[in-house]
């Protein structure tokens, strides 16, 4: 770090200037952070990718030596397992996009490098005292590990903030290898990952970043790609926290885990794995179509997050097979209570914002057949989030296809006046503004960035702006509790934020989070409750919006359906895919 503490210097433990694509993206994100600079490459002498390439016979000899060493150290069974997995990975599954080589010699031109060898003791690797001293002489703030094995010893303290290393798996459940494989094998809907500051204890580092991604159940390569690419910002985000004075977690208690250590799968496990992949794919194509309905309750919204209460809900659904209704939000206008919602057409593959006068429905049957159209555009509309400010009613409907987040003033159910663009050039999904601690905060996800997993946060002094991004977006990576799911509320001074749990599938349930920190440079929240469907009810497949206003609480629910229209639509899609 520079003398005034304004610049971070880091080193990379690597095999040279050629990296896996996901590793290269990590480095590039770091280079994009102002006042963060690479100062040293610590090159693994044994695997340096700038060494002279071996001849064909040399590679064969090296592979043979590796097999012999594996047999001697781990036995014949493990040798068979490793060899089988290696063949499957390279000739069946493939390495995927994230593992393709990328040359960073231009970006790292001029960065000093030192070659280091290590002493192996059991499964651990130790740097020599002279190499550790050489590394310390560069006065690094952190080392990012992309090479070497399980390192221990003084190297762990050779940089001010230690050695940072990824573990692509939830260390509380999955340790060992291969990454992102056993989650599919064990039918786990979530694949975790951590960035940790290494300690002497295996898989017992200080957690710097943690995230949870939806498991791709029918492809190991896709699951690995998604997880690797989803973690590439993390070192840059930790560096940003350090520069902003928000990295107290660097000194927190290391993680503790007693999870089993997995090894390469056996041939029989690989066969079972492929059978489970096929079964997952079959489930996906035969699950059916989402049929969403909306529900109305006169109970306060907070009661739905209370396990001791069971609010009564009156459900309404679209009377046709070619559409559904979802994302309901209530508002009182001129003494009448209206329900605004997304009306989605399967035929058009698009939605508009519709409404009904709740006082006219008398709480019976499906929504009034004379449902009106509140807002229609040549692009998809949904999530008509409504709120009042200074006596006026506003809305921030989802308009991701227009590549903006816009503010509308609602004069009447059918008069929505576009006020302004709040955030341009962003495919924002489920934008949810809330006033808190004298500022406006806008939560959303992005259609083009893991829409159900990465939470983005912007803030402004006034509703009209100027809107600025949080210092460390995305502020959360968790498919179980990131994407907004309706109206936040305050109880006993605490802000509660409903979110979507999309781990099993889209709109599986709602998770309620209590926001514990909300500033322009920091954000944290904790899950405190869930709003799940009645598994024995008619809408057992999920929930994904809950809202309040006008004395009502609204929510939606869905089931998977097959009907003549959807069967016809699926047959048409299959025919198109199989056509010339």
From TrEMBL:
InterPro entries found in the cross-reference section: Formyl_transf_N_sf, GINT1_N, Glyco_hydro_beta-prop_sf, Glycosyl_Hydrlase_43_Enz
Pfam families named among the record's database cross-references: GINT1_N (PF24793)
Keywords recorded for this protein, A-Z: Carbohydrate metabolism
Residue ranges of every copy of the Glucosamine inositolphosphorylceramide transferase 1 N-terminal domain listed in the record: 320-528
Protein name in UniProt: Glucosamine inositolphosphorylceramide transferase 1 N-terminal domain-containing protein
């Amino acid at each position: 770090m520079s003398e005034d503490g304004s610049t971070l210097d880091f080193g990379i433990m690597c095999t040279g200037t050629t990296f896996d694509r996901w590793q290269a993206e990590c480095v590039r994100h770091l280079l994009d952070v102002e006042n963060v600079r690479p100062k040293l490459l610590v090159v693994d002498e044994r695997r340096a990718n700038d060494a002279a390439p071996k001849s064909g016979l040399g590679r064969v000899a090296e592979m043979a030596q590796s097999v012999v060493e594996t047999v001697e150290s781990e036995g014949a069974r493990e040798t068979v397992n490793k060899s089988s997995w290696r063949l499957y990975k390279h000739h069946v599954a493939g390495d995927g996009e994230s593992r393709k080589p990328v040359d960073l010699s231009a970006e790292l031109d001029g960065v000093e490098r030192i070659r280091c060898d290590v002493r192996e003791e059991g499964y651990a690797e130790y740097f020599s005292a002279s190499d550790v001293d050489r590394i310390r002489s560069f006065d690094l703030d952190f080392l990012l590990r992309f090479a070497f094995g399980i390192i221990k010893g003084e190297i762990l303290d050779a940089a001010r903030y230690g050695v940072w290393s990824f573990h692509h798996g939830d260390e509380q459940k999955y340790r060992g290898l291969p990454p992102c494989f056993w989650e599919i094998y064990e039918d786990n809907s979530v694949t975790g990952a951590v960035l940790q500051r290494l300690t002497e204890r295996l898989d017992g580092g200080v957690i710097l970043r943690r995230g949870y991604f939806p498991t791709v159940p029918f492809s190991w390569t896709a699951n690995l790609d998604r997880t690797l690419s989803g973690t590439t910002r993390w070192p840059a985000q930790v560096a940003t926290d350090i520069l902003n004075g928000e990295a107290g977690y660097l000194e927190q208690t290391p993680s503790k885990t007693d999870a089993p250590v997995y090894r390469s799968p056996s041939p029989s496990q690989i066969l079972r794995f492929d059978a489970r992949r096929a079964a997952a794919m079959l489930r996906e194509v035969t699950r059916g179509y989402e049929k969403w309905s909306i529900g109305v309750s006169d109970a306060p919204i907070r009661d739905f997050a209370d396990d001791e209460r069971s609010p009564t809900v009156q459900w309404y659904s679209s009377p046709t097979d070619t559409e559904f209704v979802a994302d309901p939000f209530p508002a009182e206008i001129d003494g009448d209570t209206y329900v605004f919602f997304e009306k989605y057409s399967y035929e058009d593959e698009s939605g508009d914002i519709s409404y009904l006068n709740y006082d006219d429905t008398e709480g019976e049957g499906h929504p009034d057949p004379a449902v009106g159209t509140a807002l229609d555009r040549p692009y998809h509309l949904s999530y008509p989030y409504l709120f009042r400010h200074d006596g006026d009613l506003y809305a921030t409907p989802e308009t991701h296809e227009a590549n903006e987040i816009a503010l509308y003033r609602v004069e009447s159910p059918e008069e929505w006046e576009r006020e302004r663009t709040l955030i341009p050039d962003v495919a924002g999904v489920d934008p949810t503004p809330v006033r808190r601690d004298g500022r406006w905060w806008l939560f959303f996800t992005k259609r083009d960035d893991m829409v159900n997993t990465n939470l983005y946060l912007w803030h402004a002094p006034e509703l009209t702006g100027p809107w600025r991004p949080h210092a460390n977006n995305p502020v959360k990576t968790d498919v179980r509790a990131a994407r907004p799911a309706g109206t936040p509320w305050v109880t006993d001074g605490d802000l509660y934020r409903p979110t979507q749990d999309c781990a099993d599938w889209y709109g599986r349930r709602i998770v309620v989070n209590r926001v514990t920190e909300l500033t322009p440079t920091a954000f944290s929240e904790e899950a405190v409750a869930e709003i799940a469907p009645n598994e024995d009810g008619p809408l057992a497949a999920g929930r994904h919006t809950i809202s309040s206003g006008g004395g009502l609480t609204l929510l939606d629910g869905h089931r998977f359906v097959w009907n003549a229209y959807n069967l016809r639509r699926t047959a048409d899609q299959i025919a198109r895919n199989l056509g010339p």
